Amino acid sequence: MRKITIAFLASVAGLWANAQETVSDSASKELSEVVISASKFPEKKLNVSQRIDVISSKYISRVNAQNTGDLLINTGNVFVQKSQQGGSSPVIRGFEASRVLLVVDGVRMNNLIYRAGHLQNAITVDQNMLSSMEVLYGPASTIYGSDALGGVVHFRTKDPVLSSNSNTLVKGSGFARYSSANNEKTVHEDINLGWKKFAWLQSYTYSDFGDMRMGKNYPSDYPTFGRRDSFMTRINGIDTVVKNPDPQVQKFSGYKQWDMLQKLLFKQSENVSHTLNVQYSNTTNVPRYDRLQDKRNGTLRYAEWYYGPQERLLTAYELSIAKAGWFDNINLNLNYQDIEESRYTRDYRRYDRLDGRVEKVKVAGFVLDTRKIWGGNELTVGIDGQYNTLKSTASRVNINTGASTKLDTRYPNGKNSQLNAGLFAQHVYKFKNKKLVLNDGLRLQTIRLQSTITDNSFLNLPFTEIEQNNTTVTGNVGLVYLPAAGTKLSVNLASGFRAPNVDDLAKIFESSTAARQVVVPNANIKPERTYNIDLGISQNIGKLIRIEATAFYTWFRNALVKAPYRLNGQDSIVYNGVLSQVLANTNANKAYLFGVSGAVYANFATHFTFSSQINFTEGRFQTDATKNSSVYEKQANGTYALVSKKVSSKPLDHIPPAFGKTSISYQNKNFFAEAFALYNGWKKLDDYNADGEDNAQYATADGMPGWATFNLRTSYSFKPVTLQFTVENIFDRNYRYFASGFSAPGRNFIIAARVEF
């Protein structure tokens, strides 16, 4: 017995020692990980004062997500809102859509019609072709200019690979995947051909997403929450509401998408290379599922509501030079983007379809970045610019005769343009004691916008031209302190800037069917500004555990919020046949956000890893303290009603409830398994912004219930094949993400086969 006890203790000691070595190595590798987005050039994460998460290609293939939105959800650190299956709108620190900057291969994706509501543009980037995805938390206006208030999501696609000898290098990969919750069928292939000086990389991904099935395990107090009891169809040419034979199936939520990437690399010399980068993404029509649930006079309002094909084309040429005169590195990127999106709606038993509110955006841009390294200094100096144009058209089409008549456009129907230009410098200084690293930077940014309304007959606006010229200076300063191995302390101060775009200034749209609100242009709004402080810590506890924590506070000035407004002296107008309250974007006097996030990582035995992340954000804005504002107030019968009330502050919209992820994973040679939980806290209705984009009409009478899902993913590799099997939402929980009008998948079985050669 004594020998058995000694042997057991020795075994435990061995497991403990192995675990210590694993955690220590993991922490060291992560801190020495190289990031690009912080300064445009490779820099160790250890030296960056701003919080950055790096999502690797290995993690991306392991998660096996259907799109980039689902990939971000699986990190446990980024909240994602969905209005339809073909949508995913990242939220970083309470900022969303046009206040979060999307970048792909160094090129800004945000354009002059990125709205402040909810966006689906992130899913036009094929996650299957990413070498990494970097998420910057907090203002990043020094490097990237306007829009990066909450942070940046930087997608980096894979690069072509040259051959190391005289033989042609042929490598590639592919996979096929099926998911049961929406009958998803996805196929992907990519191939790389490399020679000594030339390399060519191409990829194709095609996905067919069927109608999404929600979970059957409803919240106990809300037994019909989100259930799709009926839907609209045409019978003998007449719109008819019919019973849904399976209320868990979200009828008319499916769509198809295809993505293509082509890259050509020419290595002119050891220090000079040229890359041509072409990306194309397109979809079929994408049903706007949340609006298909809207009711008017007790019945479904819309017979049709869908986005037309969402098309994105990017063509970019990049020149990279190393050791060019005084500079250590020079990168030049010339790019062009062509984007089209559209909306189609038709009310119940109406013969006229509001057909083709079509927006065509073209963007020409350039980015020139240079770096110089000397002593302990690293200096990046860059200049960038983008010229956006927009053509907005609309028509009303008789579905019986095909006759077309005029319709008010979503944006001004004349000339629309926006010019962005900026000059910046970002500096890193590594002190000789190797314990301090200084990060500092400055940017001069100018943005000019012009917009013309040529047909003012629909709303008779008090102006027909909008012009804004905004110039500002933003900056950042941060300090990293490395007192001992395994310890990192950081503080970061940064200012952010976002100039109003055409969507902010001049958009006309119906904000809410339930509340009957319409948003109209306001030409007098000012740029938004933020001032942010971050405190961060990363600490190894022995060699077994690592903890990370970040706290931030953001002062938000001139925040753009939707508020009651008067158009030509009227607080309500008839829009789309309905008397609707008038709203417009206005600048709130003051707003603030604060939050904390924490994570713990541990190896408690050989091959086993534990991790857990939690995030909390709070945000409010202040009015003049004398104006009446729309708020939700609980009534005597327990329900909530929209009322006008004098308040001194209101909740900011887009603020998610507490959310996170907890995971236990096992890795042994060719086998991997992970059991994990994703969870969200409650979002009570009195914490919703009544005039914003929180979509209270798609929540319960008390708000959005908290939830947790339990999931299991596994994979087994026998080269060159990897088989993957996943069960998501094992207990078939019925739930929605906050501000979403689309229910998340129920129990979902996913199988995939991958091959690499």
From TrEMBL:
Principal localisation: membrane
Q: Where is the TonB-dependent receptor-like beta-barrel domain?
A: 271-730
Q: Name one GO cellular component term.
A: cell outer membrane
* Identification of the protein by name: TonB-dependent receptor
Q: Which Gene3D superfamilies match?
A: TonB-dependent receptor, beta-barrel domain, TonB-dependent receptor, plug domain
Where is this protein found? Cell outer membrane
Its membrane topology is listed as: Multi-pass membrane protein
Species this protein is from: Lacibacter luteus
> According to the UniProt entry, where is the signal peptide?
1-19
Which Pfam family, an example, fits this chain?
TonB_dep_Rec_b-barrel
Q: Which UniProt keywords apply?
A: Cell outer membrane, Membrane, Receptor, Signal, TonB box, Transmembrane, Transmembrane beta strand, Transport
